[in-house]
Amino acid sequence: MHSFVFFRCFLFLFLFLFEFTSLFGQNVVSEPAGILFYNVENFFNPEHNEGKDDLEFTPDGERGWNRYRQITKENNICRVILFAGRWNPPALVGLCEVEDQEVLKSLIFNTGLHNLGYSVEHFESPDRRGVDVALLYRTSRFSVLKSTPRQVYLGPESRPTRDILHVKGILDGRDTLHVVVNHWPSRWGGEMVTRQKRMMASNVLRNLCDSILQSNPSAAIVALGDFNDEPEDESIRNLRGCLFNLAENFDGDTPGTLKYRHEWNCFDQILVSSALLPEGGAQKLVLGNKKMKIISAPFLLEEDPQFPGKRLKRTYRGYEYFGGFSDHLPVYVELVRGASL
To answer: Which of 11, 131, 226, 330 is in Cβ range 3.0-4.6 Å of 38 for a Cys bridge?
Structure first.
């Protein structure tokens, strides 16, 4: 309860100072445009959605999911978003493992993120558990022109998976930007057995990016997500030639974005088209750094009692509730004007 009250007080102070500085001469458009991706791990509402396998995340389900736990999860996600951007909240936030519009609206309005101008793009996907991808964006920084789900069809014998979300918009009133949010099929059942499913998702993303670049070779594309593969795996290498993977050389205090037993993996990645590489000229929108940053804030980690180093501070371990954050760390990049490099 004390941490909940502290967070609310912190958020109120943050929003007050943010609005104060905006009123007195701060040009928000001149600020870097932060882009965050975060697999928030099972962000459900407590109500059963007809047609979805979500009963374990209801009050009477195996996990005893309820409104209080949902609110705790909302505050944790908000804390990560604010931490990533410090005094300049991210312009764009890709999310995965969110159940529906209701949890996204609750996240925005109950935490005060709507006071920072955040809105949401989301479509229901055919995933049987009901988890989807979504994009949060600050309406003062990003105007949506078109938003489309791209189906990843795995064949008649496979469970349906998440769609890929493609959002085309205008950043800061001057730059067209394509944002593509991904959550590719997991390795559940074995990496080798499921590898082809991720290749299918990779081909959907590759075909989309090829189509965009064929129409406009200088198009600015940011593809981000939980790809459930490493940067050197075949499905990610398949994207070379159209996208540059910033996760091949990342910054961070951890060797990856998720940990299983003693091993770290970097499944959460951000890739961009060549137009956003910082070799561009003055006034061109480019990356501030060719490295992706893994957000490894101390509050996201805890001591690992079984294996060396830290582990993720999760919401659940098995079916035991701990009220933590996620089984993934978020990743982050910033776009700037070429003249400011």
So the answer is: 330
What single string gives the DSSP state of each residue in 127-181?
-TT--EEEEEEETTTEEEEEEEEE-----TTS---PPEEEEEEEETTTEEEEEEE
Residue 4 within any structural domain of the chain: no
Predicted confidence (pLDDT) per residue in 301-312, tens digit: 999 999 999 999
Residue 15 lies in a domain: no
Determine whether 199 is exposed, middle or buried from the number of CB atoms within 10 Å of its CB (0-12, 13-18, 19+): middle
Map residue 57 onto helix, strand or coil: helix
pLDDT over threshold 90, residue 283: no
| Residue 45, in any domain of the structure | yes
284 has pLDDT over 90? no
Domain count, the chain: 1
3-state secondary structure of 334: strand
**Which residue segment(s) compose the domain that 193 sits in?**
32-340
- What CATH number has the domain bearing residue 150? 3.60.10.10
